[in-house]
Structure formats: structure tokens, C-alpha cells
Amino acid sequence: MNVFKYRDYKLAIRDQIKANAEIYGYQTQMAKAAGCQRSFLSQALNSEVHLTPEHAVGIARFWNLSAQGREFFLDLVLLARAGTKELQALIQARLR
Questions:
Q1: Which tens digits make up the pLDDT trace of 26-66?
Q2: What's the rounded Cα separation, in Å, for the pair 42 and 40?
């Protein structure tokens, strides 16, 4: 998976779910790796609810991302959760 092409962590997760549709229980396995229920993962993907940094680390491990890939994916989650323009700008600069 090339996580670096994404600017939205939810899109990255949705794309991986689609790409692995033939694997029975893939989304459930991902949720387990994230440390959450499948229903919460679905809620996060389809609403304004966001995953936590801890969830992001679990998913990055599940995907076997490189150290840089893990940091990038974590930053995507942090960006989505950021509550101020200043924090958003700081995280966006790191993503570049």
C-alpha cells in the first residue's frame, strides 16, 4: 500500500477495504488490529467521528507500513482531528 498518495486517512482505509474485499473478515481484522469494534470503525469511516492515534498505529501495523509510512498515516489521523488552524498548518507542513 502506498499511503503517501493519500491526504485523507478515511479514504486510505476505504480503499484498502475495497482492495481486500476478497479476504473474508478483512474489516473485522483491521478493527481488531486497531483495538476497536468493527461497528466503531464503520462509524468513523462514515461520519464525523475520527479514529484515535492509537487506532492509527494499530492499523499501520496491520498494513505492515514502513516507519515513515506509519508516521505519515498517524499524521493524517492527527490532521483530521486537529482543532485549530495553527495545528492543521503544522501537521500539513510535516506531511509535505
A1: 999 999 999 999 999 999 999 999 999 999 999 999 999 99
A2: 5
pTM of this structure: 0.92
* Residue whose cell numbers read 477495504: 17
Which amino acid appears at position 60 of this protein?
A
Q: 3-state class of 61 per DSSP?
A: helix
SS3 label, residue 46: coil
User: Cell numbers of 31, please?
Assistant: 478493527
Contact 27, 38 (CB under 8 A): yes
CB 87: neighbour CB atoms within 10 A?
A: 13
Q: How far apart are CA 31 and CA 25, in angstroms?
A: 10
| H helix runs in 1-96, sequence order | 9-19, 26-34, 38-45, 53-62, 67-81, 85-95
